[in-house]
Structures are given as structure tokens and as C-alpha cells.
């Protein structure tokens, strides 16, 4: 069932989000009307080719975007019923870490290599909880132990470069999770790691979720990660969600030609790495001047005339599964009766 604001289970709801950047080359329309909801204790995966707006969507939630050049031009982000797009930077700082935390791909750039990891974990605790250093150190030690770092008391004094890549990710997760946020947003947290370590990090997320009931948004390039930990998936293309559904629906009943292409082109944890992947021919459109109709039309072997003219809208495939593709839109049948084509095209606009 699709969860809505009325459902007490919904913790985060993004509605018709538009985000753009001002650059020397003009305005980049990075996110163009993204909507989704995240349930309590649920894991939502966001997948899609590089540049389709996954990170910008994720960063928009707590507005971790360049202040000068970015703009949320439209839409809303509601967390526990509270509108986040209207919060001041000070209010957002209070929210980040304590309510909604982010985990990034590369700990070396996301964290401070010149401050001991103990200080970095404790900093968040003290900022949000107003407790003594001794108590904060106790919590930091416990958290480091919980994320699987042995001898945590001693290791609190160390710096990032003294840890392996997998350990650094564990530390970033410890920092993100130590104040018990309700939402964790992980942006390709396992991309830079080898397969065994990736699997361990996924298990760590699952353990944390089981223990704390945290809701998770995970951005990933790996369908194995999706299969392993997500409940639902948003497939993004050119700044829009083109298909959304449960993991089973998306894997076994994909409807959008782009989703089908992705399934054939993305690596999986659980399949033979020697099997060839089939890349989707062509490249995503220019987000300075997105196409008038379906953004996938230039790469789609099913493209019809209507696809080049009108943007497809979300159509329900089944309960909780929707797709934005003219192939599934009942109106496209009408549009393609040549005698009434013109009138209906106008009506659709
Ligand atoms: N700070 C920025 N300034 C200008 N353009 C940006 C900025 N960040 C992202 N973009 C553009 O926004 C689009 C979406 O980027 P992003 O969300 O990072 O994609 P991905 O799906 O790979 O995470 C891309 O076209 C990217 O070039
Ligand atoms: S709307 Fe048309 S071009 Fe876009 S994916 Fe569907 S069939 Fe292909
Ligand atoms: Mg990204």
C-alpha cells in the first residue's frame, strides 16, 4: 500500500521537489518534480545512472547543498509533519545528526582527518544532547563497539588514516547513528569498498535498523545491495522518479524501459561477476535544457510520437507500484487514434 501523509507510519514525505543550480553555463535543472514517502523503519533505495539527481534529492532533505548556487524552487519536504524547506540554517543544524543523518561514499572527504575520531563522534553527542564529556565518551565508545570496531576505547584516540576503508565507513556510520536519528540517508556508502566489506556494511545497516527502528534511504549502484536491504525502490532518470515500487515488483515486474535497461546493466552482489552487463545505449539528456517530452525518449526503443511531445505522468501499475511511461498510460491509446489525435494532445497539455 502506498503510504500517505495521513498514515502515522510515514516519517518523511517529499512532494514535487524541484532543485536547480545556477552555473556559468546556465541553470541546471537537477531535480524536476520528485515525490516519495519513507515509512517508519522502512528502507528505500534510490537507483539510477550517474547524474540523474540521486545525491541532490538526498541532500535537499536537510539542505546540504551549496547555499549560493542551489535553489529549491518548488515542492516540500515534510519530516514528522514538519516542513523542512522553511527551516533556517540554525534549525537545520539542530536537525542534522539528531533527527536525520547522512552517510557519504568517502569518509576521508566527509570527515575531518586532522581530528581524532573520538572527538568527531563526541562532538555530535555534546552538540545535541548537552551532556558531560565523560558521558559523551562513554556513548562514543559504546557506539564504536556497536559498529564493530574492536578495542573502541583505545581507537577513539586515533585518526582516520589509521583505519582501513571499511573501518572508516563504520566510523562514519557511528557518527551518523550515535544520536539515534530517525532517518539515515546513505549516499553510495559501499561503492568504494570491495565486495566482502560491502556485505559487512550492509549487515551493519540492517543490524542498526533492527536495533533502533531507523528508516533508511540508500542510494546505490548495486542491485545486490537493493535486493539485500531495501523494501522499496525509486528509479530516477534525468531528475525524475520514473518508476517506484517494492523490490519484488521492480525486479520481477519492471515496467519502464529504463528500469528494464538498468536491471540488465547494473552489477549485482549475488550474480557471477564474469557475466557481461548490457549498458543502455546513448546518454542521459542535457539538464540545462531537458527535453519537452519523456526524457528517455532519445534512448527508448518503444518511443512513440506522444513521448517526444508530452511528459508521461505517474500511472499506477498496482498498489504501491507506479511508472511514468506513456506505454502504461491509458490515454496514449486515445491519442493514437489518428482522427482524434490533435484534440486529445491539446487536452493532455
Ligand atoms: N553543486 C552543483 N553545481 C552544479 N550542478 C550540480 C551540482 N551538484 C550536482 N549538479 C548537477 O545536478 C545533476 C544531478 O547530480 P547528482 O544528484 O549529483 O547525480 P547522481 O544521481 O549521480 O547523484 C547533475 O547534472 C550534476 O551535474
Ligand atoms: S514514455 Fe515513451 S519514450 Fe518514455 S520510456 Fe515510455 S515509451 Fe519510452
Ligand atoms: Mg551521487
Feature tags:
349 residues, alpha/beta, 8-stranded mixed β-sheet, 4-stranded antiparallel β-sheet, 14 helices, 23% strand, globular, disordered N terminus, disordered C terminus, binds adenosine-5'-diphosphate, binds iron/sulfur cluster, binds magnesium ion
Any idea what the shape is? globular
Q: Strands of the biggest beta sheet: in what spatial order?
A: 6-7-8-3-9-10-12-11
Helix and strand succession? EEEHEEHEHHHHHEHEHEEHHHEEHH
Extract low-pLDDT stretches: 1-6, 337-349
Radius of gyration: 22 Å
Roughly how many Å apart are the termini? 30 Å
Integer average pLDDT: 91
Question: How many H/I helical runs?
Answer: 14
Instruction: Name every ligand kind in the structure.
Output: adenosine-5'-diphosphate, iron/sulfur cluster, magnesium ion
Strands, total number: 12
Helix content: 25-40%
How much beta, percentage-wise? 15-25%
Helix-strand category = alpha/beta
Q: In this structure, how is the largest beta sheet organized? A: 8 strands, mixed
